[in-house]
Amino acid sequence: KQALLQELKGKSDTTADGKTVHVYANIGSPEDVSAVLENDAGGVGLFRSEFLYLNSRDYPTEEEQFTAYKKVVQTLAPRKVIVRTCDIGADKTVDYMGLEPEANPALGFRAVRICLTNHDFFKTQLRALLRASAFGNLSIMFPMIISVQELQKCKALLEECRKDLEQQGAALGTVEIGTMIETPAAVLCADELAQECDFFSIGTNDLMQYTCALDRQNAKLEPFCDPHHPAVLREIQMTVEAGHRHGCWVGICGEMGADLSLTETFLRMGIDELSVNPKSVLAVRKAVRSCSLSEK
Ligand code: PEP
Ligand code: MG
């Protein structure tokens, strides 16, 4: 079976009736780039940047971050690489940040909530990302967004960084901006959010957790988890429709994206991209290629 999948390398991510649906890979460190290439992913739909913070004894510097992003973007050029800004907090904590223990960490001080509280911390990452954008095709997306105001604040800080860097004469590329849709609030505000960004990436792991009130860390809850829960599928449909109304493309980067029993459903909803674990790329490509959307 593995041998048959190998034959799909170099083939396009196109349905039998000609619609292209990008199949990208999720990665969590620069070392994962080899898996992206080995599995012939069209790009990286989610580069989790937490490795920089988790593998460090202190705040990673702008230079350290720049080097890591540049390496990935340059090696994979001209493929798209979507970097998610720091999603520390909840299950992922580090001592040097001095985050206090919380009663409800999943509902707590995490991701953009930390970044929008500590602007210097956030701007270090944004500057590193903008500088790396000169070396390939880099996009930036923001996690755990719950409102348009949050997205606007993230964008304003990014603009500040861009202006500073331009004044310093730095070379910068064009950067697409994306919003992760992983809270029910983001789904319900998707029309407004879509007017402020270029793409949506649906984080179904958290979207499932927050929609169904099911702690994703708690193994005891497994019998209560329905990976095809109609509420989450409806949210995906709503997100695609809202995104497309305003010219945003829409992808899925949570684990549901690799569920082959849902590939056709997602494609019929109009999903433009599926970003999955590198090992699942060829299997998802196969599923995309065997869909025919014009047939009922
Ligand atoms: C998600 O929530 O679905 C997601 C892709 O992000 P993470 O699993 O890193 O929270
Ligand atoms: Mg998430």
Automatic annotation (TrEMBL):
Catalysis: reaction(s): L-histidyl-[protein] + phosphoenolpyruvate = N(pros)-phospho-L-histidyl-[protein] + pyruvate
Residues bound to phosphoenolpyruvate: R48, R84, N205, D206, R216
Keyword Glycoprotein listed: no
Binding site for Mg(2+): E182, D206
GO biological process assignments: phosphoenolpyruvate-dependent sugar phosphotransferase system
Highest taxon, organism lineage: Bacteria
Residue intervals of the PEP-utilising enzyme C-terminal domain: 5-291
Active site: C253
Known EC number: 2.7.3.9
Cofactors, names only: Mg(2+)
GO cellular component, one term: cytoplasm
Record key words, sorted: Cytoplasm, Kinase, Magnesium, Metal-binding, Phosphotransferase system, Pyruvate, Sugar transport, Transferase, Transport
Intracellular or extracellular location(s): Cytoplasm
Keyword Magnesium tagged: yes
EC main group: transferase
Molecular function (Gene Ontology), one example: phosphoenolpyruvate-protein phosphotransferase activity
Family that this chain belongs to: Belongs to the PEP-utilizing enzyme family.
Function: General (non sugar-specific) component of the phosphoenolpyruvate-dependent sugar phosphotransferase system (sugar PTS). This major carbohydrate active-transport system catalyzes the phosphorylation of incoming sugar substrates concomitantly with their translocation across the cell membrane. Enzyme I transfers the phosphoryl group from phosphoenolpyruvate (PEP) to the phosphoryl carrier protein (HPr).
Name assigned to this protein: Phosphoenolpyruvate-protein phosphotransferase
